[in-house]
UniProtKB/TrEMBL annotation:
Gene Ontology annotations of biological process type: DNA recombination; DNA repair
Subunit (UniProt): Homodimer which binds Holliday junction (HJ) DNA. The HJ becomes 2-fold symmetrical on binding to RuvC with unstacked arms; it has a different conformation from HJ DNA in complex with RuvA. In the full resolvosome a probable DNA-RuvA(4)-RuvB(12)-RuvC(2) complex forms which resolves the HJ.
Cofactor detail note: Binds 2 Mg(2+) ion per subunit.
Localization, UniProt: Cytoplasm
The family this protein is said to belong to: Belongs to the RuvC family.
The protein's name in its UniProt record: Crossover junction endodeoxyribonuclease RuvC
GO MF terms held by the record: crossover junction DNA endonuclease activity; DNA binding; magnesium ion binding
Protein keywords: Cytoplasm, DNA damage, DNA recombination, DNA repair, DNA-binding, Endonuclease, Hydrolase, Magnesium, Metal-binding, Nuclease
Residues binding Mg(2+) 2, per UniProt: E63
EC identifiers of the protein: 3.1.21.10
Active-site residues, Swiss-Prot/TrEMBL: D7, E63, D136
Annotated gene: ruvC
Species classification: Bacteria, Candidatus Beckwithiibacteriota
Amino acid sequence: MKILGIDPGTARLGWGVIDNEVMVDCGCLETPPKQPEEKRLSSLFIKLNELIKQHRPETAAVEKLFFFKNQTTLIPVAQSRGVVLLAAAQNNLPVFSYTPLQIKQAVTGYGRAEKIQVQQMVKSILKLKIIPRPDDAADALAVALTHSFSYKFKSRVK
């Protein structure tokens, strides 16, 4: 199954595409910090639509806002997540959301794993030579892997 994983953000939105737990592509969508927020969100929306059309994923997995240490970035990240949900809906792409705790648990087996541990496991699971950069891309791949594992588990249970 081809999955588009998203780590939402306004300045930097990480994305990764996997197909049967093999990395297809990954990267970051970035917007200029001095640009008005509506322009930044519009730019993310356009670029997300291009990514969806280019890679034709069967589903999207997005990190859910669960707990935020930095309150000043909470609203922009929530807005970015809204743009992701809208782009997915307009492309008839089912969306599944996972908390950071669920992602860490799925990828490392430990819900309180450090960011570097998650990235090392992404590298290992996807059999990559190096950890994908920037960090946001590796995080997006972890989200996609979480959905892949969850989907497989649910399929076996049925």
